Amino acid sequence: VSSASRQPPRVLIVDDDARVRQAIQWALEGEGFVVETAADGQAALELAARRPPDLVLLDMTLPTLDGYGVAQALRRDHGPALPILAVTADGQAPEKARRVGAYAFVRKPFELDDLLAAVRAGLAEDAGQETRDG
Amino acid sequence: VLLTDAVQVLAQAVYVGLFLLALARALRRPERANREIALFFGDASLIVLLGALGSVSPIGRLPLVVALGGALLLALPYLLLRLLDAFAGVRTAYLRGAEVGLAAVALGVFVLPMPQPLWYVVLAVAYFVVVAVYASVGFVRGGRRARGVTRRRLQAIGLGSAYLALDILTAGFAATLPAWAGVWMTLGGLLGLASGLSYGVGFAPPTWLRRAWQEPELRSFLERLPRLAHAADSASVVHELQSGAAATVGAAAAIGLWQEDEQVLRFYTAPDLRDRIAAAFGSQTTALGFRLNEQRDAFDLLPGHMAAGQAFAEQQPVYLPDAPAADPAHAAFYRMAGSLASLATPITAGSRRLGVLIVYAARAPIFADSDLELVQVLADQAAVVLESRLLSDEAARARAREEADRLKDEFLAAISHDLKNPLAAVRAVAQVLERRLQRDATIEPERLATALTNITLSTVQMASMVDQLLDYARLQMDRPLDLDRQPTDLVALARQTVSSYAGTSERHELRFETQAAAITGQWDRARLERALQNLIGNAVKYSPQGGQIVVRAWTEMEAGRLWGLLSVADQGLGVPAADLPRLFERFHRGVNVAGRIGGTGIGLATVRQIVEQHGGQVSVSSTEGQGSTFTVRLPLDGQPDAAPPPSPPGPAAGEGPTAGEPPPQPAGPPHLQPAWRGAGA
Lengths: 134, 681
What we know:
The complex is a heterodimer of chains A (134) and B (681).
Chain A: E1 10-14, H1 18-30, E2 34-38, H2 41-50, E3 55-59, H3 67-78, E4 84-88, H4 93-99, E5 104-107, H5 112-133
Parallel strand pairs in A: 1-2, 1-3, 3-4, 4-5
Helix pairs in contact in A: 2-3
Chain B: H1 2-28, H2 32-56, H3 63-87, H4 92-111, H5 118-145, H6 148-176, H7 181-203, H8 207-228, H9 234-249, E1 252-259, E2 264-268, H10 271-281, E3 290-291, E4 298-301, H11 306-314, E5 318-320, H12 323-326, H13 331-337, E6 341-349, E7 352-361, H14 369-439, H15 445-476, E8 485-489, H16 490-501, E9 508-514, E10 520-524, H17 525-541, E11 547-558, E12 561-569, H18 603-613, E13 617-623, E14 627-635
Parallel strand pairs in B: 9-11
Antiparallel strand pairs in B: 1-2, 1-7, 2-4, 3-4, 5-6, 6-7, 8-10, 11-12, 12-14, 13-14
Helix pairs in contact in B: 1-2, 1-7, 2-3, 3-4, 3-5, 4-5, 5-6, 6-7, 8-9, 8-14, 9-14, 10-13, 14-15, 16-17, 17-18
């Protein structure tokens, strides 16, 4: 385990609903993560370009550029290893999550514990990969 | 002399021949009209036979025989009058009068000495002329009213009477101007021959002649058929079939369409017939097999009732030459509809029962044996057209149903998706607070305040969504909204709604324009706001290239009422002209956006529902590629009860705008205007 992993993980929340965004932000900040938020795909890509996140919490239904478009661009810019946690409100969550290459999905309205567990799992997997790669 | 004799013998032979034909027919089909025709030709034949007897045998010159010939001649116009009664109807008083007159003049023939006194001759000739002319004119007038074969037949009878009158006139000339007797006799013979032939053609047209007369009408009917299957609606197909059948047979025609779901035959008729049935039969209406629904231009008949229902139930032609006598329970209807003689044939394609074709006339002799075949041919042709029409209608309905189902699913998916966001926010905020309390038992007051505000706002959002869902359910069931009317200012509402949209899109310039300080009416504020949100949301959505979106509010006086108006104009994709009439129907979307821009097809239907429940109207003017303007008109004088029914849009058929009522919308769909008359089942 490298010393770099001591840094608090950076999580990017992409959701067009301001109140959902804020609730998740509070929860993650309460767990010690560094959180950035974006209301649409374009803003998310700009933020990610400036400072690459360790994990992206991605809502699938976004205005203008939708979840698939955002996921595709993130993979293009940050490689296949970037963990994406899909957050959706519709019934086809598993299929959608698979299509964007998300490691897991969370359905709205979610249990906070489930969301946090999924985020930790994603970061651990990421860390594991880094360890293996390095 | 030889020519004169030949012509006279020929005329006599024609009358005798026609008598034998008519007699054979009357024996085969002893209907009243056939008996009357046989009687008429029998009388004419006896007259010519007695005349012939007089020239070859002394028996024919016996006073009694001569008197008998005179009496038979005087009876001829009376028999013609009876025929007119059978064909077109004659007042009973006139018939009785003619009988009394006939008895009087015939008595004179037998009792007065020869030569008869002048007063008697004048009286007898006057009687003859008056009755003959009355009957002839009656036939000619009947012919004017009739069409097709019937018109020609009645005209031929009128012509025959004219020849007969001239014939009698020449006999008079021959008696008064003996020098020219030969010429008069020849002319008289020719006229007699012509009248005999005309009567024959009119009263008992041979089948080949009927066919020849029917041919042009039948041909034009058959030529129109292929185009019929593509007519705009089923009602106009039925209308065309009815008028084609009527023209071909030379009588009135009606088609009853079988309604599989309701198990009734539906006749599209003159709007007043339904009401006349209701008025004439009252509580008996149902027992007699009528079903009167809300549709004012149609009435329904149960299978088994009357000629039409019977033909349909038994799947074979039914001919009632004297319908009131054969079916006394419905006698009043037969008289009301002018269908005393009815010929009904089922319209059936293979095993599929489509309806019934009924050809009817006020009088039985309009029909001949060959008409049965003809009506069967017409019914078969109608079956082909109606079946193809039904099949294409069914296919279109199935497509529309599938599309509606798909859009309904999309709508439900969209609304449940939208509900989950505020739900997620509430639950997440609550759990974050809960977590915090468990850990260190303190929450910063600002954060707590924000959290509580978020929860409140989320529940407000959810409540509004649930309201929309409930309104949507009402729309689905065509149930009225429960309006919460309160003083509402259109200007303030529009200004606030427009500002709430400002900043949601960078490409659009959203503007509100008004000269009015306030336009206040008794309206449901929340619903109007939703209607305006829908219109503005559409304007944004359907102008993906951006541009100006201008919302205006103003007032107008129209039809004696003050209206508050709101319009939303965009510079977007616009609506194709073909989609305009159906734009406000639920799940209907323009062909230029369906499948390309997401949407549920429910927004404009909701707008229409809300506006119409307020007693107002919503309309659209649009040019594809240049943008659309939606205009909402709301009555300002607050007459909640003046609200028109929520759907269908447009003025009800047959009702013009009346004072105090909003004028009809220009953008309404073309309405079915039943322009034809006729019923008779």
